[in-house]
Amino acid sequence: GFWDPLGLSRDGDTATFKRRRSTEIKHGRVSMLACVGYIVPEYVKFPGYLAPKSGIMFEEVPNGLTALAKVPGAGVAQIIAFAGAMELNFLTADPGRAPGDFKNAGRLGIPFGGGIEDAEKRKRSLNAEIANGRLAMMAIIGMFFQDGLTGSAWGDWLLYDDSPLRSFAPDPGYNTLPDWVKPKNGFEGLIGDQAPLGLWDPLGFSKDGDIQKFRKRRTVELKHGRVSMLATIGYIVPEYYKFPGYLSPSTDLKFVDVPNGLKALSVMPAAGIAQFFAFIGFIELSYNKELGEPGNYGKGLFGLGSVGLSASVSDPDVRDRKLRAEISNGRLAMVAIIGM
């Protein structure tokens, strides 16, 4: 509903409300870009030089807040100048337009981008944008917080020794590089024992010390997390894009006719749902055979080995960081998809 716990809109001032909504949308858009800016450099960076005169290459610029110490002062000035030009000259508010709607910008505030003509689709996209923007504002603050305390936005809380939340609880561990060999002596924390909470097991499932049970539960957790990440994307993407043409020519059902979310099940042909079950069953029972540690099916990063692409991560530190990030993101996605 209309969430205003501080009663900022209680005075009924339309102009003030419009200004606050414009600010909210702007901050949401900037935060969405900022989140993408944190994630993308983990996987790809531009080739060549960022500052030829200073001899700084793009690949030498660290991710996150520490990048500010590496970028030359002239580069920081350019960023500020560009943001100022966009704010003061290009994306100027028009009293005759809705908050966040600019004459020379389209969808998502993209300069010279196209708008959405269909009124219902436009309303749905605007609602999705403001919701995603609110989520991104929370996400980027979390990234800043974690980056500032640990030097990384991706779960390296072990670097933050002063955490008051650290539990120091032991974790049934196992060798993650490259394959399962044997449980480590005792119960040592590795993947999944994510600081600051350590081994968070309020129901005591791991108290019996049974490594095989722990391994089975970790496999299930990873699988559910991966499915939830895909499901979350599956909720978001159709708000902005759907395939052209027919989903089911025999029933005259087009992709654009399929609603988003749970309602899609009501218009899907039974044969289509049967295909889902058959494909999932094939992947689960026949194709994916576990190799080594839980969640490793020998298909490489993101399973790209299934389509003939070599995507293995050989660097031990990078691999460990990605595995920790995956399980953290999977846990978040499980909570997110339930909320959706």
UniProtKB/TrEMBL annotation:
Pfam families assigned: Chloroa_b-bind (PF00504)
Domain of life per record: Eukaryota
UniProt signal peptide: none
Record carries keyword RNA-binding: no
Gene3D superfamilies, alphabetized: Chlorophyll a/b binding protein domain
GO MF term set: chlorophyll binding
Any one cellular-component term (Gene Ontology): membrane
Keywords: Chlorophyll, Chloroplast, Chromophore, Photosynthesis, Plastid
Official protein name in the record: Uncharacterized protein
